[in-house]
Prior knowledge:
Number of domains: 1
Bound molecules: flavin mononucleotide
Largest sheet: 6 strands, parallel
Amino acid sequence: xxxxxRLLGISGALRAGSSNTLxxxxxxxxxxxADFTFGDIRFPLFDEDIEASDGVPDIVHKxxxxxxxxDAIVISTPEYNKNISGVLKNALDWLSRTGKAPLTxxxxxxxxxxxxxxxGERTQYSLRHCLTPFNPRILQGPELMVAGANAAxxxxxxxxxxxxxxxxxxxxxxxxxxxxKDTGR
Length: 185
Ligand SMILES: Cc1cc2nc3c(=O)[nH]c(=O)nc-3n(C[C@H](O)[C@H](O)[C@H](O)COP(=O)(O)O)c2cc1C
């Protein structure tokens, strides 16, 4: 690890006003001093024919390299029909084809923002499941769900609820504390 930790943030939603993207940026603020990178997952749809003819796209390798370089990763996923978004699953499937073991042993904090009252609690468990094959170090808590996503952020992109930001700050503190731990992986 360098003196300034490298934090990678990934949002599972692509739209410009995505609350999950806002939450990732709030997480970066709560994390404290860091070399922060926002990961781009606008990948083509995974297709083994494309992989066979053209190889893994550069944009996928770019994210894989960011993952490898990261000291810690935070992922925020929307809840689409009780599950993670297709674009996020697509990104994970492509990442698994880079040959770089990009998430192995990485401390990862998962969180979610969703319109429903559960704040994406179900999608977080799906995300944990989807990350398992990568053998990362997924934090167990504190759990951070943002419910009622369309009214959870102000015009400045900041979380309106102080308690939610306090939980996010604890989650990011836990993530920061994981950096540099030798887990033998
Ligand atoms: C295809 C689709 C499925 C959705 N399914 C759920 C759902 O199961 N639970 C939920 O709370 N919200 C659901 N929503 C609403 C999303 O939580 C809401 O659009 C949220 O703002 C998406 O995240 P974003 O703000 O990062 O784009 C769904 C939205 C879409 C477009």
